[in-house]
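Hello Y.,

Per our agreement to keep a running log of every chain we model this quarter, I'm adding this entry. I've kept the format consistent with earlier entries: sequence first, then predicted structure.
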Amino acid sequence: MLPTSCGVCFTGHRPGRLGLSKQNEDELRFRLHQHIVKAVDEGFCNFYCGMAMGADIIAGELTAALREQFPELRLIAVVPFAGQCSRWPESWQRRWRALLSRADEQVILSPTYQQGCFQTRNRYMVDRAQRVIAVYDGSQKGGTFSTICYARKQGREIETVAPQ
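Predicted structure for the entry above:
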């Protein structure tokens, strides 16, 4: 297992919650890029991506691209179940497959969908990270909120990025 002292994980909202127009995605990418570079500058090297549509994939794509500049950076794709993207729009499926192929490590937690598998994935990532970078709108419900609550209980650093 990789040391938690240099781990970062991502959590965040799906596309509908993010209001992802091209301009909004570009702005979000810019802000996430700043947080990732800051983490690398502070010695973080292992980045855990839950591979969900929206913020996860965007953060994972940025992390993969930054490996040219920071060769010590590692992208770990944490997939809650095989076939995670099978019901997504084709454009997101393509992004998911491309990102998965660029990951340094792939962790598939279950061969099939299981109730609670997304929470299992989120806890897996938080348990291996010291910092959480959360694309979070402040709502008090949903997977991102639950992940942030769990991370707080585990004493993790949390950096939030407003979706818009």
